[in-house]
Amino acid sequence: MKGRTIVHVDIDAFFAAVEELLHPELRGKPIVVGGLPHERGVAATCNYEARRYGVHSGMPLRQAYELCPQAVFLRGNYQLYQAFSEKFFRLLREYTPDVEEASLDEAYLELTRCRPLYADFSATAREIKARVERELGLKVSVGVGPNKILAKLATKKAKPGGFFEVREGEVEDFLRDLDIEAIPGIGPKAQVELRLLGINKIGDLWGLPKAALRQLFGLNGEEIYLQARGIDARPVASFSPPKSISRETTFLEDIWDKKLLLAHLAYLSDRLSLALREENLYAHIIEVKIRLADFRNEVKRRLLVTPVQDMTSIYRVARELFFELYSSCRLALRLVGVKASDLVRARSLSLFEPYCDRFERLGQALDRVREKYGFGAILTARERMLEAVYPLEKERGFVLRTASLTR
Ligand SMILES: [Mg+2]
After folding, report:
1. How far is Cα 238 from Cα 30, in angstroms, rounded to an integer?
2. Among residues 242, 275, 244, which one has the least CA distance to residue 363?
3. Least packed by Cβ within 10 Å: which of 23, 82, 114, 407?
4. Domains delineated in the chain
């Protein structure tokens, strides 16, 4: 049986490249995306012109400015990058269902299962590269290998903008002269220790027995032993987001009171927001459902240009939709529900943390409290009202009746 074939695709200097594409006047200038020089926070991406000055992603903006004051500093537009990213992954999924989203601009494709479709995997990988570049207008680096680590190391070799393939029989030759920093299991501390032992190249590591590496680095030592030999059995973890997530409550008795209904809506928005955070998803569509006392269901939905996750944004939309539905009916309600659909995954948003919506930070703070003390331990003023009506234990997820996640 033939082995696996993994293609690793990585867009070069992604955020900066998108900015250059949309603002041609920036081309050729050093660009740092992530914030303005005086702002707190780090460079999310910088282009190769900026890297020449020693600027790299993850570096504090102030420091980037000291190294390269002439750089163009941009706050960046996450929605825009997200849109490019979605197009990127849509295109990749045309080639195989086995696509792993390693980050916004980085993917592993496993072609192994698709062997009957492609006569020559190298040619397919080159075609993928050409198509991404043509259809997105961005330069990508592509690496091909018999597993994930080798494919990724091949991409590193191919950067910027190139193509490199490591074949089964060439693994040793390929690895021998690479610097040990290329190995993911070797962090900065391990690097220092190994260099003290005179081990600088991956080939130098081959002389160390597994037991020695274990003694030096514990369990991680075994990982390093395998990685140094290009051994990696990790599967390509393809992900498809659920189609929708919803939360709804059927009341014990029909409810007339508008304030109380809104309290439920706030509670459901809060619950839904938590579920989205847990799945790391943002919703483009928010939908509200009501069931009237006569069992008729009414539904209204809204498409949002900017996907939402935090409870305040969800509640705002849900409340408007609720009023549109409720103002036309003259009956008490048996049920209210809130549903999120057209879900997109949030990736590497934390790079933009300083600009992250304050509602999002509120959500994160609530999560921390609830993790410790339970969901009911902290509620918004609107939800508090429910406690008076339903004197149930907080921990029993008190009024929530149904929760569903559709895959
Ligand atoms: Mg990249």
Report:
1. 35
2. 275
3. 407
4. 14-78 (3.40.1170.60), 173-228 (1.10.150.20), 244-406 (3.30.1490.100)
User: 192-219: per-residue pLDDT in tens?
Assistant: 999 999 999 999 999 999 999 999 998 8
What is the Å distance from ligand 1's center to 104 Cα?
A: 8
Cα-to-centroid distance, 97 and ligand 1 (Å) = 21
Q: Do residues 16 and 25 make contact, with C-beta atoms less than 8 angstroms apart?
A: no
Interior/surface letters 234-271, b for 16+ CB within 10 angstroms, e for the rest: eebebeebeebbbbbbebeeebeeeebbbbbbbbbbbb
Catalytic residues: 106
DSSP run (H or E) holding 292:
strand 281-292
Tell if the pTM clears 0.70, that is, is over it.
no
The helix-helix angle for 358-373 and 258-279 (nearest 10°) equals 90
Instruction: Show Cβ contacts of residue 159 under 8 Å, excluding neighbours closer than 6 positions.
Output: 10, 12, 141
Ligand 1 centroid distance, CA of 159 (Å): 10
Angle at 254 between CA 297 and CA 298, to 5 degrees: 15
Segment 258-295, tens digit of pLDDT: 888 999 999 999 999 999 988 888 998 999 999 998 88
